[in-house]
Design goal:
Pfam families: SEO_C, SEO_N
Protein name: Sieve element occlusion N-terminal domain-containing protein
Strand content: 5-15%
Shape: elongated
Largest sheet: 7 strands, mixed
Number of domains: 3
Strand order of the largest sheet: 2-1-5-4-3-6-7
Number of strands: 11
Length: 661
């Protein structure tokens, strides 16, 4: 690098107008020493505010040629021991820099920061502003009293006050004086907002994510406040010494106003986050302590807004929220992307409770930003629901709470609340989808009772076709099968049919029914796997048992080329996939002797024998449903924890038949 380039780089590092924030930070951090120095910055700021509010008002009157009085406000005068020597040292550092340029201003600022190395950043700023305020207020106080007070007149001459306040000089420098005064006001405002931000550090940073970024920037903001004060002092010195040189302040004015705007936005955002955090805690308290259900719902849905009437789908009328008083409430929470099929999950529940006065369903639509198109879609959806519907044109007040505490994502959920507003189940949707009204009243206790049952085939997949429940009740063997490979399905159908009609099976009076899930009706397979997924979700956070393992294995077969599940009535015998289960039925001749004793056991043992010689990597796709997902999952046939991969999938079709437009 040439000597000229090195010199240019050195100059750049001393010119703040072309330095990045990172470069400024690097330089100013070297001046800062962390210490336990105690200093009453709040009292000093109060005195500085008193001083500058009145002195800048005097300047405004002088510039405008008016005699407007300041609002009668009693200044707060705190008990405070002034750090006068420090203030005089800072003032001396800033005084008489009659070579007005950015490099000099930067050098002076760094010298001040070195002097104040043991103070916190907000203290550095207010000490510098206090040192300036001493001189600035003294100057304009003399300007005010010199016409009538002989002492003020003599001191004013010593301080060259008349050189700036005589009519001719005032006329000449009016714009420059106004610019200085406005910059002083803006810099004071910047420091005041920095103090506001510092006070917010008493809050938990988790509640105020915006505060972290703002606090990180404070050292740079303090630097700009100090260098602006330094530049203002230099400009005043140039004016009262009648120097031909002047300091260009417009760059500092732009920078200070940008910082002020940014800080105000950060303060506004922090206050919003404080309100949200306090609201979040309020909701938590409401759900944890006995409260009338209506009061809980008002806070959850509307918070401070006036509660809106509910729409009653059965009567197509609006009703007041008082209809929910002392009721058990099922909050049906979803986005507007809900399907007809998902709505139908709750219809049997509604039919069973509509004659029960103490149970009600309420749909809460989750919309982050309403549009005319979404309002039309809402009206269509509303017309399809016979239960109560929240009609609210804004964002649900408790949206963030619903996402964070109840883990709402996109899929519909049902939160069960007692008449006292206590959560009885944070998401019973999958419980309802898996077991229907058999799981009533859909509390965690009723879920626990059902989870203790080992026979789940009828309740989970029995509703996909009317014939299945008859087979289940008749305690028949049922071979459910399907897969992504049509050739595999054809092969399995051939061998399974031969097995079911084998003479040995008939002689043993064994009844075997075959049911292909992957038929032409795509909704059949969708309902089957929805049932399996819902059962998995209801059990995934519970201790692992035989049923959990069976469901887990079944879910891993969802995208296999072929799979089969053998049940005896409502209980699962075994399940398998691909070549393993295909060989089991194809090689029936090798194990048929055992069916006289127990067909299910013979099938299971031969299947396990083939599986022991076949290795397969198991893949488990968990739907992104509401609620917590497990951090780890162990595979039933392997002692190790499964590896975790994240995948994203898009199979949407704008013309999907089940989607509600």
């Amino acid at each position: 690098m040439s000597a000229k380039s090195l010199l240019q780089n050195a100059e750049n590092e001393r010119n703040p107008l072309i330095m990045s924030d990172e470069q400024i930070l690097e330089q100013i951090y070297s001046t800062h020493v962390h210490s336990d120095t105690k200093f009453d910055v709040d009292s000093l700021l109060t005195l500085v505010e008193n001083t500058l509010r009145r002195s800048t008002h005097i300047v405004d009157n002088v510039v405008q040629g008016s005699h407007a009085s300041l609002e009668t406000i009693d200044d707060k005068i705190p008990q405070f021991k002034s750090p006068l020597c420090t203030l005089k040292q800072i003032a001396s550092e800033m005084a008489c820099k009659l070579a007005p340029n950015e490099e000099t201003a930067h050098k002076t600022t760094m010298a001040i920061l070195n002097k104040l190395s043991k103070y916190e950043w907000d203290a550095k700023a207010v000490l510098t502003l206090a040192a300036f305020a001493l001189e600035y207020s003294d100057f304009w106080l003399l300007a005010q009293y010199q016409p009538t007070d002989p002492l003020a007149k003599s001191v004013a001459i010593l301080k060259r006050v008349p050189l700036l306040t005589r009519p001719a000089a005032l006329q000449k420098h009016r714009q420059a004086i106004a610019e200085v005064n406005n910059l002083v006001k803006a810099t004071l405002q910047v420091i005041e907002v920095i103090f506001e931000l510092e006070k917010l550090t008493s809050y938990d940073i988790k509640d105020l994510p915006a505060l972290g970024l703002a606090i990180e920037q404070i050292p740079v903001d303090v630097y700009w406040a100090i260098i602006t004060i330094v530049s203002v002092v230099t400009q005043i010195d140039c004016l009262i010494t009648e120097s031909e040189d002047k300091h260009e302040l417009s760059h500092y004015g732009q920078k200070i106003n940008i910082i002020l705007s940014k800080l105000r936005k950060q303060i506004t955002l922090c206050r919003q986050q404080i309100d949200e955090a306090e609201y979040h805690r309020k909701l938590k308290r409401l759900f944890q302590s006995p409260t009338e259900i209506i009061e809980v719902l008002k806070v959850l849905i509307f918070n401070k807004d006036a509660p809106q009437p509910l729409f009653h789908g059965a009567t197509k009328t609006t009703v007041e929220m008082t209809v929910l008083k002392k009721k058990n409430v099922y909050l049906f929470i979803s986005s507007l992307d809900i399907t007809e099929e998902e709505i139908s999950v709750l219809r049997p529940v509604y039919d069973s409770i509509k004659t029960k006065e103490n149970y009600k369903i309420v749909w809460i639509p989750i919309v982050e930003a309403w549009t005319e198109q979404l309002r039309k879609k809402f009206e269509v959806l509303k017309s399809k629901m016979p239960w109560y519907v929240v009609q609210y044109s804004g964002i649900i007040a408790g949206y963030k709470y619903i996402k964070e505490e109840w883990h709402f994502k996109k899929n519909p959920m049902v939160v069960v609340l007692s008449p006292q507003g206590k959560v009885q189940h944070s998401n019973a949707f999958h419980l309802i989808q898996s077991h229907g009204t058999r799981a009533f009243p859909f509390t965690t206790f009723s879920e626990q009772q059902i989870n203790n049952e080992i026979n789940w085939v009828g309740s989970v997949v029995g509703n996909i076709h009317p014939i299945i429940n008859g087979w289940v009740e008749g305690q028949k063997y049922i071979l459910f099968y399907g897969g992504k490979d049509k050739e595999w399905i054809q092969q399995f159908s051939k061998y399974a049919s031969a097995l079911a009609n084998d003479v040995a099976v008939k002689e043993a009076k064994i009844s075997i029914e075959l049911f292909c899930v992957e038929k032409e009706d795509k909704s059949l397979a969708k309902r089957f796997w929805s049932g399996i997924e819902s059962l998995f979700v209801t059990k995934v956070q519970k201790p692992v048992d035989a049923v959990t393992q069976e469901v887990q294995k079944m879910l891993s077969y969802k995208n296999e080329s072929g799979w089969a599940l053998l049940s005896k009535g409502p209980s699962v015998v075994t399940s398998g996939h691909g070549i393993v289960v295909l060989k089991t039925v194809a090689e029936f001749e090798k194990w048929k002797e055992g069916i006289k004793k127990d067909f299910g056991l013979s099938f299971k043992e031969y299947h396990a024998k083939i599986a022991a010689t076949t290795h397969r990597c198991s893949h488990l796709e968990i739907p992104n449903v509401a609620g917590k997902l497990p951090e780890t999952i162990k595979w039933p046939d392997c002692p190790r924890v499964m590896e975790i991969f994240i995948s994203y999938k898009c199979c949407h079709n704008e013309n999907t038949a089940n989607a509600i437009k």
